[in-house]
User: Fold these one by one.
Assistant:
Number 1:
Amino acid sequence: MTVKRVAEFSNGLAFYEADQRTRRHLGGWQVLAPGDAGYLQGALANGRAAGLVLDAGRLPAYGKQGVFDLPINDTKSYGCCCW
């Protein structure tokens, strides 16, 4: 996966398995929908459990890009969040 930093923020990036239409989390024991309390925390936990988190220190500098080998399954749908 290629990631390019287009803003000067120093956030991390997480991908998490989610339903394609509803964006509900599909991993773990609790299913959360966007707007539910704890959605972002659940998305981050889902991403961490799947090895799909790029902490801010691993991301490229502003205006640069980096290539990362993440265990993305091309038969699944994912959401993305920054924190």
Number 2:
Amino acid sequence: MRRSILIAASLLAVLSISAQAAETKPEELLKARQGSFQTLKLQFMPIVAVAKGDAALSPDTAARAANLVALAKILPTTFGKGSEALAKSDTKPEAFTKAEFLQGFDTLGVEAAKLEVAAKAGDVDGVKAGVGAVGKACKACHDTFRNE
């Protein structure tokens, strides 16, 4: 319960930052982006553990998948003007001008929603498939738009 409250507070903070993205300094957008991706990782890795059989499927799995859906909606707002050229950014500048980049977040959201449905249904095989699909969506953007 405490973790859910912290996650909700984090998401609200990101939403607040996102709502002000047009007025936000590029450095603040980068911090929000990096924090959002860290939150995405923290939500996804326990689901990966379920898919690997290292953790039990629980209601928490579905809640984490729902958080991934929310993050897929929030993340695009952290790629605001001016943050594409910052030295600490891992995102290639061309990502900021490609519709394909933003479509990747849509794909992530769709696949995370399917993962949530599988988790709510108690479908371990569906969770395994969902983890693969979410991972594939992440990898597609990383391969194309992330500096390594």
